[in-house]
Amino acid sequence: MDNEQVLEYSIGEFRGNFPDVPIAAGVNLAELKALDADPMYITLPIVPNIGAVSKNGLLYDEALVKSIETQINSKRPGGRFGHLSDTERDTAFPVPDGMWLGALREGNTLWAKALISPGAAKDRIKMLKAVGGKIATSIYGKGQYEPTETKGVRRLVNFDLESLDFAPPERAALGYAAAPNVTSEFEQEGPDMDRNQIIAELTAADIPATIREQIIRDAQAQSNTAQTISELRTQVSDRDVMVTELQTTVAEFRRREFDGAIDQRVTELTNWKITGDAAKAKLDSFRRTLRSRIVSELGSERDTDKIKTVIETVWADLQPLAETVRDALAGPPALVSSKVREQPKFEDTPEARAKARAILGI
Fold first, then answer.
1. Model pTM score
2. For the chain, first and last CA: distance in Å?
3. What span, in angstroms and rounded, lies between the C-alpha atoms of 133 and 126?
């Protein structure tokens, strides 16, 4: 995509107060004052409404406005009363009528400040100020146009700002012009700059002893404050670690208390007299089944106060089976007074087996 020449009058109507646009870094106002003992600055809105569309169909979107702001602050372009013609563009290099020294975004408006050159340009601005006249600005350079989703509206990308010129208000592409805010160095820029220069040139020997001591005390106070803050942060961190450890310990204690309460009650319910390793293994298996049913009934709750009620409910279902298991583990019938104690009779039917399997979960 080829670069196209951009000639866009981009000023809008000014309403409200002019902001104090700061001078961009790297500008030496003292040297500028040496060239003009009575400097004149003007502040103008360059893009009055970000997102607006000019008469030429150009969309002043966020990206374009940011590019213009950055280039004003970095390039500090010149400004002329009018643009170069196409025939002059490749060879002419006229002395600008003003130099743009800084740009500032405030709200939905981009502002810029220019230093006006002595002579006819300064006289023209003074006359405009005296009669309450208005002036427009126009961006000049090259970029690439791209269509947008809106018919007749274009977007400008890769824009290279060459100059930010002054123009008659009738040509303003956004339909309005503004009365310039004119200031002198001493009204707006001088005091701050002189103060900054003085501070920059001071050495330790130039600072009075009392002020030096106060600076040292302030620095020490700031250092002590920073150390105190660091210590407090360490204490807070240690406290958080301690709280986490305590929470873990309490959770582990409650888990053990819960498990212990269940195990104790299961042991009490199945405290049967048995003999032999095989019988002991079967008893342990039944205890695990009973415990699993109790835990399942409790669900996600781990409240030891509810264990008793849940165990009573589960035991009511499993008690017949438990008694069967108990009697089976008791071994063969014992001989008492030459009489054989009869073993309890069990109902060995498919229905009874299905019921037992359902209760045991197998």
1. 0.48
2. 77
3. 10
